[in-house]
Amino acid sequence: MNLLKKLQEATQNEERTYKIEANKDTFDRLEKLFACLEYCNNGSSRAFIFGQDGDGADRFKVTPKPPTLSEEDKETISNGGSKVNYSVVNVGGLGEKE
């Protein structure tokens, strides 16, 4: 595959639609995360942290079900670890108020 074709494929957007069921606070934080991602369209590269109390009120359901995480990703989440450097933008969660 030539370089031009690879570049064209890499820059083509696609659209996906999901249904999310959650409480208002979780939606507010998720929308703030979306706003942060949208803001980065100006050329900034960042990683964001989204705190989630998965055994409490922050549970939410996504339909259709997202792709399954790799075992490595599951292990990283379970251990609370991170393999990347990141900038922190607090989108709330885990008992923290904005």
How would you sum up this structure, described in words?
The protein has about 100 residues and is mainly alpha-helical. It has one domain. Helix content is about 35%, strand content about 5%. The protein is built from three helices and two strands, in the order H-E-H-E-H. The protein has a two-stranded antiparallel ribbon. It is extended. The relative contact order is 0.20.
Low-confidence stretches are none
Rg is 16 Å
**Cα shape:** extended
The biggest beta sheet reads: 2 strands, antiparallel
- Share of helical residues: 25-40%
Mean pLDDT: 77
Given helix and strand content, the structural type is mainly alpha
Distinct helical segment count: 3
Strand order of the largest sheet: 1-2
**What fraction strand?**
5-15%
Total separate domains: 1
Strand count? 2
Distance between the termini: 48 Å
Helix and strand succession?
Answer: HEHEH
Care to give the gist of this entry?
The radius of gyration is 16 Å and the shape is extended. It has a two-stranded antiparallel sheet. The protein has 98 residues and is mainly α.
Topology:
Layout: H1 3-10, E1 19-21, H2 24-39, E2 61-63, H3 71-79
Antiparallel strand pairs: 1-2
Task: Throw out a few tags for this protein.
single chain; 98 residues; mainly alpha; two-stranded antiparallel ribbon; extended
